[in-house]
Amino acid sequence: MYKVLTFNNIAQAGLQGLPRKRYEVAPDITDPDAIVLRSYNMHDMDIPISVVAIGRAGAGVNNIPIEKLNKRGIPVFNAPGANANAVKEIVIAGLLLAARNIYRAWRYAQELQDTDDNLDKTIEANKKQFVGFELLGRTLGVVGLGAVGIEVANAALMLGMKVIGFDPNVTVRNAWKLSSGVEQTETLEQLFKKSDVVSMHVPLVKDTSELVNRDRLALMRKGGVLINFSRSGIVDNEAVLESLDSNYLHAYVCDFPTEDLILHPQVIALPHLGASTMEAEENCVSMIVENLKEYLENGNIRNSVNFPETILPRVAGTWRITISNTNVPNMVGQISTCLAKRGLNIKDLLNKSLGAIAYTVIDLDEPISNKTLGILQRIDGILALRNLGKSLS
User: Fold this and answer.
1) Predicted TM-score of the model (pTM)
2) If you write DSSP's letter for every residue of 216-265 in order, what string do you get?
3) Tens digit of each residue's pLDDT (9 = 90 or more) over 310-344
4) How far apart are CA 234 and CA 211, in angstroms?
5) Is the domain 1-82+275-306 a CATH 3.40.50.720 member?
6) Which CATH number fits domain 308-393: 3.90.1150.10, 3.40.120.10, 3.30.70.260, 3.40.50.1000?
7) pLDDT digits (tens, 9 = 90+) for 163-176
C-alpha cells in the first residue's frame, strides 16, 4: 500500500487514477511515500523521511525546495502542458482586453451617472478615449516556446497576427508542434524590436529574473502591450510603470497584482487565474498521478524537473532496484561490481543523468537481499536506493 499526502485543494477527478486498493490518499497522512500539491510552500517544511517523490499539479516549482530534495535523491514531477490551453485562452483574452481598452471602457460605463435621456450623448462624447487597435497584421513576440508558448503562438497566427518567437532551448518535440508560420529570432533584443505585443512564457530562474527591463521595453514599438502570465519576477515592475507613465507602453496585462500595479489605469492585473479552470486542474492532477504511479510502482521517470527521463519496460520474472546518485565517474561500475560479487546477474540496466544527478534502473534475475542493499547504500555518492521487487507481469 502506497501512501500519498495531499496539500491544497487537489481535483478529486484526477486523483481517481490512484486505485484505492493500492493507494491511501488524504491530506492528513503520516509517513507518506509521496506528496501531491499545487501552490503549498514546502521551503520551510520538514519533509518526512519516508517521502520518495513529490508531484506538483502545475508547471512552476518555485514553491518546492529542489536543491534539498536533490541531496536526498527525490525526484520532483510537474505537469508541463496540462494547463496549456487554459493559459493560452486567458493570454488571448488579455490581449483583446488591452488592444481594445475593454477594461477601462467597462469601468467607465459602470461609473456613468447620467439618466437614459443623456446617456447616449455622454457616451458619444467620450468614447474616443477608448479607441484601440486591431490584432490583424500586428506582430506578437512570444518569449519561451514551451507547451504554453507554442499554443499562444499558433492561436495568434489564427487571429491574423504575425508571430515571432524566441527560445534557444526549444525541444525537438515542441518544435514539431510549432506552426511553420512562426518566425524565430536569434536574440531577445531582436524580438522586442519587431513586436507590437510581447507575451512571456518562461519559468522564473536566476537567468530569467527581470528578463523584461528598461532597455528591452525601450526597444518595443511605441504603443505596445506586455503580457505576463508566467511569473511575477521575470518582469521589472518599476520599469513597466515608468514606460506606462511616459505613454510609451500602452498596457501591461499580468496575473500578479501588486499595490503599485493595481492602482495604475493601464494595468490589467488578474488574481493568478492563468490555469484556474476545472479542466486544467483535473488535467494537471491526472498527469501527475500517472507519473507518480509509474515511478512508485516501476521506478520509471517522466516529466521530472530535477531527474532525467528514464523509462525501462519491466521484464517478466525479474526483480527491480533503482538508484539515485551524484553524477560522478564509475558509479555504474561500482554498482555492477557489487552485484556481481554477490552472484546477482543483471538482466537489464538503464542509466541516465541530468546535471548533478544520475539515475539507474536495474532488473535482476533474482531477488536482492537486505544485506546487499545495505552494502550498495554505503557506496560513496549513493543518494537513494529503492527495491521494487518482482515484476507482476
Assistant:
1) 0.80
2) HHHHSPTTEEEEE-S-GGGB-HHHHHHHHHTTSEEEEEES---HHHHH-T
3) 999 998 899 999 999 999 999 999 999 999 999 99
4) 5
5) yes
6) 3.30.70.260
7) 999 999 888 888 88
